[in-house]
Amino acid sequence: MALKVLPDFMPSEKQASIHMMVVFFGANDACLPTSPTGQHIPLEKFKQNLKEMIGHEMVKAHRPTIILVTTPPVDEYALEATDTSKGSTGVTRTAEHTKKYADACREVGSEIGATVVDLWTAIMARAGWQTGDALPGSKSVPRNLVLRDVLRDGLHFTPKGYEVLYEELMGTIQSCLPEYSPQAIPNRFAYYKDASM
Fold first, then answer.
1. Which residue in 41, 151, 36 sits closest to 89, CA to CA?
2. Span 29-41, mean pLDDT?
3. Strand partners, 87
């Protein structure tokens, strides 16, 4: 969907100059193929869509620095309640399936040389997950309180979830793209205390 509407919201290089573009997709794409939402996008198509979006002529005209943000994890416990309340007979997403989309985003970033904010790993690390462990958020393990605190309905962020996104994005900008950190960008207007009234 985003690829189709990109020409509707991407300004021409005459209208504006985009220096940095943050691409954050995958939560809806990672619905299970059996999901009644109709939002599922096969994994290879998801990867292709990311590449096509970043390589779109309207994006390339700006030559922006691209930052990809991985799909965040899900909490199947909360999703089950949310999905059931909407008439679904099962969850629309699983922790294991969603991880594949986060992995795919990392792969695309590596292939095209884009900076990646690994939000999935950042949240999972806060949830105590280590490589090889069962996935927090899966119903095969007890409910994880960190995921409960960052995902209000098993999918969408709470304020704490948005804090994690902000911290990870700003941390990545500071360490990988310091020229785009807020401290490095000159003010276009006078500081309010310096403005004459």
1. 36
2. 90
3. none
- Do the beta carbons of residue 93 and residue 155 sit within 8 Å? yes
CB-based burial, 156-186: b 16+ in 10 Å, e otherwise:
ebeeebeebbeebbeebbeeeeeebeeeeee
Virtual torsion, Cα 97, 93, 67, 112, nearest 10 deg:
30
| Rounded distance between C-alpha atoms, residue 54 and residue 65, angstroms | 10
Whole-number Å distance between alpha carbons of 74 and 94: 7
Q: What is the pTM of this model?
A: 0.90
Residue of 101, 141, 132 lying closest to 118 (CA atoms) = 101
φ/ψ of residue 194, rounded to 5: -95, -10
Q: Is 40 within 8 Å of 29 (Cβ atoms)?
A: yes
Residue type, 138: S
DSSP symbols for 9-50? HSPPTTT----EEEEE--TTTTS-TT-TTS----HHHHHHHH
Query: What's at 165, amino acid-wise?
Result: L
Note the pLDDT tens digit of each residue in 101-121. Answer: 999 999 999 999 999 999 999
